[in-house]
Amino acid sequence: MAKEDLDTPIGQSHEVPDTRLTLSSAAFSRDTPIPRRYAMAGDNASPPLAWAGVPAGTQSLALMCVDPDAPGGNFTHWTLWNIPPTVTALHENISVRGASRGFVQGTNDFGKMGWGGPQPPKGSPHHYRFQLYALDAPLHLATGASGEAFTKALNGHVLAEAALVGLYQS
Q1: Is 72 exposed, middle or buried (0-12, 13-18, 19+ CB in 10 A)?
Q2: Measured over all CA atoms, what is the biggest interatomic distance in the chain, rounded to whole angstroms?
Q3: Which of 85, 97, 125, 146 could form an SS bridge with 167, CB 3.0 to 4.6 Å?
Q4: By the 8 A CB rule, do 25 and 48 touch?
Q5: CA-based radius of gyration for the chain
């Protein structure tokens, strides 16, 4: 018998609640198609996202969406940062002026601020990787910073991360 079994009162277990950071969407599931509404050819609305399991010590959250299948490599569709750790979801169609909740948005690789929906060339489906980061500090980036600046600013500050990948095909 293991020592932890001896220290456990009958009827109780040593199960620890799952505190792993998770990311999900009400609009699509892992490795399933992203609805057209969220694509450039649709309404170009940002998808709703929700998360759980933010670790203790998190000072801010940050989010990035990239298409690793783009012809030139990783194509940034969205960056947001300085999301308060008490926030557990983003509703769909976040405005470029979404700073009302305290967060800041960057410039996507379309050259515009905020969300830029899927717009892959015709052919195989592309993967859109939404990556959520729990950080030990807010990011000190100017509004509209590039995806590259965002990625560099994360260095040394990530406590945990979670991903959600959706698919889109033109």
Answers
A1: exposed
A2: 61
A3: 125
A4: yes
A5: 18
